[in-house]
Structure formats: C-alpha cells, structure tokens
Design a protein that fits this description.
Strand content: 25-35%
Strand order of the largest sheet: 5-4-3-6-7-8
Bound molecules: inosinic acid, magnesium ion
Largest sheet: 6 strands, mixed
Oligomer: single chain
Order of helices and strands: EEHEHEEEHEEE
Radius of gyration: 16 Å
C-alpha cells in the first residue's frame, strides 16, 4: 500500500485503470453528439480528471472549449455544508450551446444539480454531465450523470484531484486513507 503523509492509502482505481476508462469515456462523449462543445470543469476537485479527459477528447477527435467553475460545497474536512455557492464563475456565454459539466464525484447530487440548473437557466441548449465517480448510495437529488467513470463504493476517497482539507490531491490514483 502506498504511504503518504504517514498514512496508508488503499488503492481503489490505479492510474492505468483510470487512463483506460478516460479513453472509453471520450469515445462515449464523441458518440453522444454534442455540438459546439463547452467543457466546464467544476473546481477544485475535477482539475486532474478534467485535464486528462479533455486530452482524451482530443484523442477521440473532439475540439472542445474549456472553462472552469469554482463551486463551494465541502468547506473543509469531510462534512458537506449542504449549500452550494459560486466562488468563481465561467466567462463564456452558454446560450444555445452544448455544455459538458465535468466533476470528480456525484454523491448527494447537490453540486451537479446546482451547476446544471445554472447552465440551463442561462439558456444552454444541452447540458451533459461527466463524473469520474458515482456514489449512488447518498443521492438526495433526482439527478444522474450521462457519463460515469466508475460506480464507487460509499467510502471517502482521495487522490486524482480529490482531497481531505486540500491534502492528497496529487496522488495519481484514487484511494481510501486507512485508519491509524
Ligand atoms: P455532492 O454535491 O454531494 O454530489 O458532492 C459532490 C462533491 O463533493 C464532489 O465534487 C466532491 O468535491 C465532494 N466529495 C464527495 N465525496 C467525496 C469523497 O469521497 N472525497 C472527496 N470529495 C468528495
Ligand atoms: Mg468537487
């Protein structure tokens, strides 16, 4: 088991597995037929997934524009505050455009629900959702992702952009911090 910050990390999805899945997701997104695609990466958690996914999209022959939307949900640590706010908005007009929201995890659904509603309210023609991980066990909103990397067990995960209080984002894999 990798040891980081003196903690053992149990690997759930290794770098090679994630890489392979990103290529498959890119093919799926290509086949979905988005037009004039604007990829919106939801920060901070999705920054590594989005970086790899857009390069996979290039590999699949797509040429998206890319923007960043910083939302707050988890203030710190592992407890959700429940309320979503925009900390930093995208700069592009989305009216009449196809938007693909990219996030790390779909859990309660509050984050994606908020982002999707915001894009549709602004007049987006179509809003797709791509997430690396779907944790269906804790959903509080009726919302699903169109493109899912992996169905994830109900565990608090770190790595590949995901954090505990801003730590562990650098890990090239997704894992669980073991006790002790
Ligand atoms: P939701 O709004 O409950 O769907 O939560 C989604 C957001 O919560 C994600 O964008 C993540 O930033 C964060 N999150 C949920 N579960 C985890 C986890 O296991 N590790 C790290 N962040 C998480
Ligand atoms: Mg997030």
């Amino acid at each position: 088991m990798p040891n980081v910050r003196g903690r053992s990390i149990r690997v759930l999805y290794d770098a090679e597995t994630i890489d392979r899945r990103n290529s498959e997701l890119a093919q799926e997104i290509l086949a979905a037929g988005y037009r004039d695609l604007l990829v919106v990466s939801i920060l901070k958690g999705s920054f590594i997934f989005a970086a790899d996914l857009i390069r996979a999209l290039h590999g699949a022959g797509l040429s998206p524009e890319v923007e960043f939307l910083t939302l707050s949900s988890y203030k710190s640590g592992m407890v959700s505050s429940g309320e979503i706010t925009v900390l930093r908005d995208i700069e592009s007009e989305v009216t009449g455009r196809d938007v693909l929201l990219v996030d790390d995890i779909l859990e309660s659904g509050r984050t994606i629900d908020f982002a999707k509603t915001t894009m549709l309210d602004r007049g987006a023609r179509r809003v797709g959702v791509a997430v690396l991980l779907d944790k269906p066990g804790k959903r509080s909103r009726v919302i699903d992702a169109d493109h899912v990397g992996f169905i994830c067990p109900d565990l608090f995960v770190v790595g590949y952009g995901m954090d505990v209080a801003h730590a562990f984002r650098e890990l090239p894999f997704v894992g669980v911090v073991e006790d002790g």
